[in-house]
Design goal:
Distance between the termini: 35 Å
Order of helices and strands: HHHHHHHHHH
CATH topology of one domain: Rna Polymerase Sigma Factor, Chain: A
Number of helices: 10
Largest sheet: none
CATH class of one domain: Mainly Alpha
Number of strands: 0
Helix content: over 70%
CATH architecture of one domain: Orthogonal Bundle
Structural class: mainly alpha
Length: 197
């Protein structure tokens, strides 16, 4: 069980950037974008499963953040605020998308890219095995409910701690733990079922 963590506060530098951005300073907002664009992109990718869609959604989140910059709180982390915008965009996108299955299958590629890169190129059996694993993982992740998939992505792929996830999503720590537990169980069951099939 994870112990209580101190709430992460923005650095003085980030607070100053937020204040300048609130006043309409494009350079300050550009610096915030530079700091968090990669993280926002990967969060969106984990949620929607498509490189192009993740790029579009993360950029749209920053555009909306800029338009709503007057509601920023310089005493709170910028990314936490941005993530609430991004996750709403992603969930709306998923709800409205009719080709969800195909897009999520494409997303599995990033789950095993590092493993594939480490595999010997001259070992066709290993490359085939990794391709099959990627396909099985894609199907299993695709089958998770949105909220379970979100917590799984934040924990396993973004490396956030339980308390950080709870703060980011605005939910109790116990809810994070139960969603993650359910996601892992369902993922394991799906992978075992797909392997036996």
């Amino acid at each position: 069980m994870e112990t209580a963590l101190a709430i992460v506060l923005p650095t003085d530098d980030e607070s100053a950037l937020v204040r300048r951005a609130q006043a309409g300073d494009l350079d300050a907002f550009g610096e915030l974008v530079s700091r968090y664009m990669r993280r926002a992109y990967y969060a969106a990718l984990g949620l929607v499963g498509s490189h192009d869609d993740a790029l579009d959604l993360s950029q749209e989140a920053f555009a909306r953040a800029f338009r709503a910059r007057t509601s920023l709180d310089p005493d709170r982390p910028f990314y936490t605020w941005l993530y609430t915008i991004l996750r709403r965009l992603c969930f709306n996108f998923l709800r409205d998308r009719t080709t969800r299955t195909r897009k999520l299958a494409e997303a599995a590629g990033w789950l095993t890219d590092e493993t594939r890169a480490r595999a010997a190129v001259d070992n066709p059996a290993r490359v085939t095995e990794l391709a099959e694993l990627r396909h099985r993982v894609a199907r299993a992740v695709e089958g998770l409910p949105d909220r379970q998939r979100e917590v799984l992505v934040l924990k396993e792929f973004e490396g956030l701690r339980y308390r950080e996830i709870a703060d980011l999503l605005g939910i109790p720590l116990g809810t994070v733990m139960s969603r993650l537990y359910a996601a892992r169980r369902q993922l394991a069951a799906s992978l075992a079922e797909n392997h036996d099939a």
